[in-house]
Amino acid sequence: MCGIVGYVGANADERALNVVMEGLARLEYRGYDSAGVALVGGDRVVTAKKAGKLANLRDELGARPLSGSSTGIGHTRWATHGGPTDENAHPHRGGTDDKFALIHNGIIENFHALRGELAAEGVVFESETDTEVVAHLLARAFDGDLTRTMQRVVERLEGAFTLLAVHSDQPGVVVGARRNSPLVVGLGEGENFLGSDVAAFIGYTREAMELEQDQIVTITPEGATVINFDGSPAEGKRYHVDWDAAAAEKGGYDTFMEKEINEQPQAVGDTLLGRTDAEGRLTLDELRISEERLQDVSRIVFVACGTAAYAGMVAKYAIEHWTRIPVEVALAHEFRYCDPIIDERTLVVSISQSGETMDTLMAVKHARELGALTISICNTHGSTIPRESDAVLYTHAGPEIAVASTKAFLAQITASYVLGLYLTQLRGQTYADDAQEVLAELHGIPAKIEAVLGGMDRVREIARFMVDTRSVLFLGRNVGYPIAMEGALKLKELAYIHAEGFAAGELKHGPIALIEPGQPVFIVVPSPDTPHGLHGKVVSNIQEIRARGARTLVIAEEGDDSVQPFADEVIYVPSTSTMLAPLLTVVPLQVFALELSTGKGLDVDQPRNLAKSVTVE
Ligand code: M6R
Fold first, then answer.
1. What homologous superfamily does CATH list for 3-248?
2. Does CATH number 3.30.200.20 belong to domain 453-617?
3. Ligand 1: residues within 6 Å at CB?
4. Which of 87, 338, 396, 405 could form a disulfide with 307 if both were Cys (CB 3.0 to 4.6 A apart)?
5. Mean pLDDT over the full length of the chain
6. Is 612 annotated as catalytic?
């Protein structure tokens, strides 16, 4: 949700612009409604900005090159206040002179009041954005020291924001401020960087520094200084980024999504890595929560959004089964508003790839206020949600750039399983003895995902035949239900096709009315070994829709011939225990959505209207 880059170096040449543009290219997945840059040159700040994707800004810079500079900022936008126009694109200048520029990620909640106040003083606005209000406040308050000015202005702001500002009276300086919105510092030699995430500067340095909430950072070529909003000095936490620029590139694939789907075996394997001892028992010392505290947990609530929430739904089935602890899944944006029943024996587990999703962050904060123990399952080091939680269990999927989540989803499910199995191990309940067996089986999953990926030709063919399809339904039961929902979500966001995921048993209670001859329906069939005759029930559901003319696309376990008579297509995945099957059955659905989107000529990595991390509520 908006990408932000800042740079200061020692020389006034092309580097500042190149670094900023490269950073924007890496951050474009965060928003692509417009892009803009500002460079400090001589005694003024020059800007260029364009609605639409970064390519439009590149064309603009080609036609109207900016001169060399040592200091620059850049922004890629996901529109909130004001449409995706050139006028609303960042940077904003805050007045008529050309000495100042500001970029912003987040929402200034009191912007109406501030705008009214400024308008009464005669300020004329050029855009509809909340950002321009802050730009005017800063430009008007500037007293020769941008850091001090920022400190005074942020006091007046409500909401969530990352702000980066430059002023030509302080040419070698970029000042950033953050509240509830991401900002990390990149530490180079004779040059320093700011970014919404480390991808912004990963091509230049892997040394980074985290900022806390409500802090202001000032970067110069020599270093980075941090203060709190109240002016007191602060220390940022330094860390080394454990992936490099190559990980954030396409590596020979046509799209990031294709690359990320193919990285899934590694994402699962890496998420398991280093979490077991020589006896094959889980060790999660990294949580730094005492065993007694975890043993005392009486209820678990997952909070997450979108794909991450579906990972939570999968986890619910598995963790309840293994631990016999009641588990709920709440959409993070609903959690706070349904007056949740939480106490100190409740474990609230947030799941977030980005670690910045505002809805999830607010749910975590609320849970902590209510006394819950909070654990974050997260893919992004240095992000906000882990910092606001009692503990973190990182997924190790590596950077996920495509807006549609794939490898992070598998890593989230894996981490949730690890947590569930650890609780099982600690609490010595019904399935404690089985926990090690499940864990051993989990270690075999990456090879099985490889096998699924190796057999996707028919799925691609099916997708190519279906480019004109207007609606696809997805059915599943038990852990197959969230996979059906995820399959539908992937198709909606990538191919803009109406898609719905249902619990297969619910069909006869209404949605079966949607079935008409030729309606394509994917059905995720559980293993024939699943208890309580679930497999047979799903096979009956397939027959019910086939009898009404549906085109049935069945995902089943290798060797399950019983589905053949009722399936127009069967996609087989290797056999595994029921609870682990989602790690395999979702893969054909991801490939299907990717191929259909490609077949329709759509932008797979940057679907319309979306942004990778949703940092507004
Ligand atoms: O970064 P997060 O995991 O918190 O993001 C949550 C959702 O916004 C995200 O999973 C979204 O649904 C994806 N576009 C799904 O592909």
1. Aminohydrolase, N-terminal nucleophile (Ntn) domain (3.60.20.10)
2. no
3. 305-308, 352-354, 357, 360, 403-405, 493, 610, 613-614
4. 405
5. 94
6. yes
